[in-house]
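Dataset card, provenance and construction

Sequences and ligand SMILES were collected as paired inputs. For each pair, a complete structure of the chain with the small molecule in place was predicted and serialized as structure tokens. The example below shows a pair involving zinc ion. Curators did not alter the output after generation; any descriptive sentences attached to a record were derived from the structure itself.
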Amino acid sequence: MTHALNRATTANYHHLDQDDQAEFDRYMERADNAATNGEYLAHMVIAARIAGINLPYGGHIRLCACSCSCPTIFNPDHPDAHCIEQTPDYNLDRHQCPTCADWHRETA
Ligand SMILES: [Zn+2]
Ligand SMILES: [Zn+2]
């Protein structure tokens, strides 16, 4: 087994500069509105890369949708992440990051 680089799996939206935040928002919105799963997944990878997360194709990221305005960008497949609400008409359902789910779990 090779030594894996210490790759970030979460990021802080506030640590991105303004241009990166705008780019990140743009790709998250494209992912949200993508017509096909392939398109959605491609936008996920790009948005993750902008945030500094190395996401393999097929992975997902979300900006925490918690009402505390949490800036955490994280993988919604994390076992401690919590889905607040499914949004059937969009690709991005609303998730709380593991920390928020632990501290103040929300339901839709
Ligand atoms: Zn959070
Ligand atoms: Zn929160």
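Derived descriptions for this record:
Residues 18-33 form the longest helix (16 residues).
The radius of gyration is 14 Å.
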